[in-house]
Design a protein that fits this description.
Helix content: 10-25%
Number of strands: 25
Strand order of the largest sheet: 17-16-22-21-20-18-19
CATH topology of the largest domain: Rossmann fold
Radius of gyration: 29 Å
Number of domains: 3
């Protein structure tokens, strides 16, 4: 494999890699603002300048500059090597690149950083980007000097509503154009542009348009400073109080990788951020997915219900036991929105009860050719592996209406249609719902047992590409909710069946044998794309 030296370290690269990309793949960050691994490279921030040593025996390009001679107390002309943007310079086998070891590069970074901050407002105390801002990080690492300009800074529009989801602050903008390039290259809607020149530059929306569509929140995600903020997260939390868990988006079958940022003090989720995974979602997420974190708090079922009234967990389990023990025909219904762990536990209970097997989930919806899939269930492929011969919801309704089924145990509460007609037939049987949210099945159920949401327990979800992806636990379960597999194990014990698992690792051991064909989605081969 070809390689080059960066500050004396051997850096392997693939043909076509730029210097900055090759270094990034090795976990080395060359300071930058405008470069992003998923976008084109305009080389307009000049923060990633490096010194490339000429081959032995050749003379590199030199520039004449004026420097102050302390001894002579006068300016004189000196030579310095021409620095080049590492985001546009392709890596060449055997070349030698200087970054941290070049005094010219170090000085250039300081000057670039100072120029970017000349007109920058001191908004850090109220800026949502504070604590994860490249301007703050690079000032400390590459400048560290006081502001020398004493003139009034250039003022630009603040708090401009680009659309329903994004607010723009022109004074904070460093003109990296990441947002412009994302909308043009990824979202395929070139609605943003850069206008004016020099220190009057600002980002604007095309005349007669607003920033809209299904990928607007990504412009805030790629912004390296606080120029673009989302109306959803704006002024809601400070990032240094937040913790992060690696989770899987529940919005559709794509299974986008995400960071769920939450405040452990309040057990509250505040936002999703896209997490790199080249096999699944590259560096991006859609707006519906980015906002789907809210479901962990909204329309939750947090207390057991028996015949429409609140009950203790023990009373609800006993009521469910009575319904199942006295049933002439039992059906279990797998949930395509629930984790593999919950579904394999339900399969174990269904096997012990001799139950017929069905499956349900949300109806199909909008799709595009970027990320959004029509299937709005996060684990359709996983359930298909666990229960390949399961009947659909229509078959369940038919079996209940014919009297073949007198008790139904449903995992989840989503059905293909939310109207009452979709669940009217279920009222012919005693229904037990293991549910995270309110919904049609929960309304029709005789017994409701609340279970933990995806963010409240670790779970595996298989996306449309067949990749099994683990979603980490972030929050503590709310109310009386417990992980679905745990509730199922408790129900099985009440019915006199030892399902063979009491811990998550035991459930996963059963899952490994029940669905061996599942492959694991590879993690990103390089560090996270920096904001």
């Amino acid at each position: 494999m070809p390689s080059f030296k960066l500050d004396g370290r051997e850096i392997p690269f693939e043909p076509g890699d730029s210097i900055i990309r090759a270094a990034w793949k090795q976990g080395i960050e060359v300071p930058h603002y405008c470069w992003h691994p998923g976008l084109s490279s305009p080389a307009n921030c000049r923060m990633c300048l490096v010194e490339i040593k000429p081959p032995e025996g050749q003379r590199g390009l030199q520039l004449d500059i004026v420097a102050w001679d302390e001894e002579a107390q006068a300016y004189r002309t000196v030579k310095k090597p021409k620095l080049l943007p590492s985001c546009q310079m392709q890596a060449v086998d055997g070349q030698e690149v200087l970054a941290e070891t070049s005094p010219h590069v170090i000085q250039a970074r300081s000057y670039v950083q100072e120029a970017l901050l000349l007109n920058h407002p001191v908004d850090c105390p109220i800026c949502d980007q504070a604590g994860e801002c490249k301007l703050q990080d690079y000032w400390l690492a590459h400048q560290g000097t006081k502001k020398r300009m004493r003139e009034e800074p250039v003022h630009k529009p603040k708090g401009v509503q680009f659309g329903e989801s994004i607010v723009y602050d022109g004074e904070r903008c460093v003109m990296c154009t990441r947002c412009v390039r994302f909308m043009e290259e990824v979202a395929k809607d070139p609605v943003l542009e850069m206008r004016e020149r020099g220190n009057l530059n600002e980002i604007s929306v095309a005349p007669g348009r607003k920033l809209e569509g299904n990928y607007t929140l990504m412009v805030e995600h790629v912004c390296p400073v606080g120029a673009l903020t989302s109306t959803d997260f704006r002024f809601k939390a400070r990032v240094w109080f937040l913790r992060s868990a690696k989770t899987i988006c529940q919005g559709c079958a794509q299974g986008c990788n995400a960071h769920l940022d939450f405040d452990p003090r309040y057990n509250k989720a505040y936002r999703y951020r896209a997490r790199d995974n080249h096999a699944v979602n590259s560096y991006w997420m859609c707006d519906p997915g980015m906002l789907s974190y809210k479901a962990v708090h909204e329309n939750r079922l947090l207390e057991p219900m028996v015949n429409g009234k609140h009950a203790s967990t023990q009373a609800a389990v006993e009521a469910a036991k009575g319904l199942l023990a006295g049933a002439s025909g039992i059906a279990i219904v797998h949930g395509r929105q629930q984790s593999q762990e919950d579904n394999v536990a339900l399969a174990a209970l269904g096997e012990a009860l001799g139950a017929k097997v069905f499956v349900t989930g949300a109806a199909d919806g909008f799709a595009d050719d970027i990320l959004i899939k029509a299937d709005k269930n996060s684990n359709t492929a996983g359930v298909a592996l666990l229960a390949p011969k399961a009947g659909d919801f229509a078959a369940l309704r038919k079996a209940v209406s014919k009297g073949d089924i007198s008790a139904v145990l449903v995992l989840g509460t989503s059905v293909p249609s939310d109207d009452d007609g979709a669940i009217s037939d279920l009222r012919g049987a005693k229904t037990i719902a293991l549910a995270v949210h309110e919904g049609p099945v929960a309304k029709a159920a005789t017994v409701v047992l609340p279970i933990a949401a995806w963010a409240e327990c670790s779970g595996t979800f298989v996306n449309i590409g067949g990749h099994a992806q683990v979603s980490e636990k972030a929050l503590e379960p709310q109310g009386s909710a417990r992980p679905g597999w745990e509730v199922i194990a408790k129900l099985g014990a009440a019915l006199g069946h030892d399902l063979g698992f009491a811990k998550l690792k035991e459930v996963r051991a059963r899952l490994a044998s029940a669905a061996p064909a599942v492959s694991t989605a590879p993690e990103a081969s390089a560090p996270e794309a920096s904001a």
